Amino acid sequence: MSLLKGALDYSDFKDVDMVIEVSVHTFFESVVIELHFVFMNLMRTVFSYIIHVYMLIEYLFVRLL
Question: Model pTM?
């Protein structure tokens, strides 16, 4: 572990063999990400219903002609 050290400046990267990046999400970022997934699932469901209704209307229209 003594070979590991933290760096906050790009000049510290000049003689390294490997870089491990750590990203910490704040609570706000986590909420935004979760809302994005909820919205995408909602839109997927809504468009699925729209497609099914369209297919039903198309089927009925073809049968009635």
Answer: 0.49
Q: Is the dihedral of CA 44, 49, 54, 60 positive or negative?
A: positive
What whole-number distance in Å separates Cα of residue 27 and Cα of residue 5?
27
DSSP secondary structure string for all residues of 23-57: ----HHHHHHHHHHHHHHHHHHHHHHHHHHHHHHH
How far is Cα 40 from Cα 46, in angstroms, rounded to an integer?
Answer: 10
Structure tokens at 17: 């063999």
CA-wise closest residue to 8 among 21, 18, 27, 17? 21
Please check whether residue 44 is in contact with residue 38, taking contact to mean a CB–CB distance below 8 angstroms: no
pLDDT digits 0-9 by tens, 13-30: 787 877 777 777 788 888
